[in-house]
Known about the structure:
The chain is mainly α. It is 66% helix and 4% strand. It contains 34 helices and 4 strands. A 4-stranded mixed sheet has the order 2-1-3-4.
Amino acid sequence: MSKTRPCPTKTLLRTVARSPAPVAAATTSEFNDLLRGLSRRSQFSDSLLLFRSILRLGVPPDAFSFPFPIKACASLGLPVNGSLLHCRAVKAGCIHEPFVLTALISMYARCGLVNVARKVFDDIPEEMATAVCYNAMISGYGLDENVVEAADMFNRMRQSGVKVGSVTILGLIPACSLNEHFTLGVSLHGLVFGLGFDGDSTVENCLLSMYGKCGTVESARRLFDAMNVKGLITWNAMISAYAQHGYAGQVLELYEEMKLHNICPDAITFVGVLSSCAHVGDYKLGCDVEKQIEMRKLGDNPFLSNALINMHMRCGKLAKARAVFDAMAEKTVISWTAIINGYGIHGYGRIAAELFDEMITEGIRPDGTAFVSVLSACSHAGLTQKGLDYFNEMEKRYNLHPGTEHYSCVIDLFGRAGQLEKALSIIRSMPVKPDGAVWGALLGACRIHRNVELAELAFKHVSELEPENVGYYVLLSSIYDDARDMDGVIKVRKMMRERKLRKEPGCSYVQCNGRTHLFLAGDVNHRQNDEIYSKLAELENTVKEMDGSGDSHRKCNSRGSLLGVSVHSEKLAVSFAILNTKPGEEITVMKNLRVCEDCHLFMKLITRAVDRRFTVRDATRFHHFRDGICSCQDYW
DNA sequence: CTAGGGTTAG
């Protein structure tokens, strides 16, 4: 919640806007001081407002006035307003001042118009091009991830004898942050060393984040360990590097460690930590972080709100996620995507679709990721037509070119609806090369609709694209199994043996009495083994009686949810939890499959029969934690 | 001119 506290500049601005007379006598330099103050406090829209008032009042802006509103345009992403300021600066004869020029270069570059920035740069006479001008231009190419031009500019700078500073390097580094530029990044690191900028903490922090983005977390970690001075930003850069690659365990470890080093976490630390809580389902720590956010009055930070929505959603606390979302003053596409995705995860396709429509009504333009979320929400909830409508609008209305991630959702939509031939013809006519996920979606549909012939075709492609992905072999094997084709099953097994692939057993987690317990499919090693299995038999009978039609059973099975053989581990986990809780208590089930509406029905049945409250939590990426864990042990 | 940040199917 953003608080409305009286803001002196706002009051002044209002005075300026309403009655020009009393302040008309103000001088240019008085206004410049005011502009500087606003700029320092990052009050960019106010800065623009004030500048407009200055013009209206007829006070002539000078070279010291222009950089502030130009910077404001850069921060707000308003290149059109920026270029208007550019024109005004030209008219006012302020264009030859180096700080106006650098502000303009940086503004155009930050708004994605590097070429315009370059034009401004090229008009600067050689002898007037200061280090700051070069730095601005290099940083512009850096943001554009244009290594060639950035390096070219850097060389030109060195040849012209202008002093290269650490800021120059800081601008250069992002140019190598693209995945394929990893080796360039390494050589840049070498250059930094050669120029003697190693040991400069700003440069090292920047290199660290570069490794996080384009290299491996290991290379980032090596640099981290080698750094003598580790400040808050260093810890944050390392935490973010881990968080971005899903190394949630390392994030939480580092978070504890930094506190031991008396480094006080800030909003950026919390973003990384919350994202890892969401990955791993650590709701307790997530809530702890939320409390700290409240205590430190960081609640109006949009980055944190987005991370909180995601955390609550993945932990199954839909209402809490919704509350955070509703309280946000300004919702970006990312906020909407987080909430839409959350409802999608939990099978509420209709709500997800409604929210998507609402987002558009609010004037927010969806991006590719938002479409992925709504499309997958539709396909999981069986809203075939709705999903297809969204897909068609993507290109028509928003000029977004669907990628493989969107096509795999569409294949899923048609596939679940039983239109397998249609799905195949779409794959054949896709403008982008289908990847494993696309063929995999078709393979999954073949499983539901028992189409062996098409499954073999889909598998042929998918096994070429992702030969190591065990999931697809298992899928094909169960398709043969369903068709009672034992030769097929044997064929797949042989293939897996030859390629040295082994299916890891499916696993499920359940939280009760504050501990997390892990179960593997077919597990017989638990100390309460007999009790668990008799409870399980009892449970299955209860559900069968309550849902006489067997309808939800069949549907759930086809989507691999609680009643299926393949999710044996979940049944064990639920049985165990019921044994070890009292009526009325809360049990958290962690699913690493998407939850469908039929599962909610099943949960309702179970809930009534056993008098427990279930929270279903997404644990799609929980497997990071699985390595080296024995079966049936208390997890933590 | 300038180091760290949120969302993404299967």
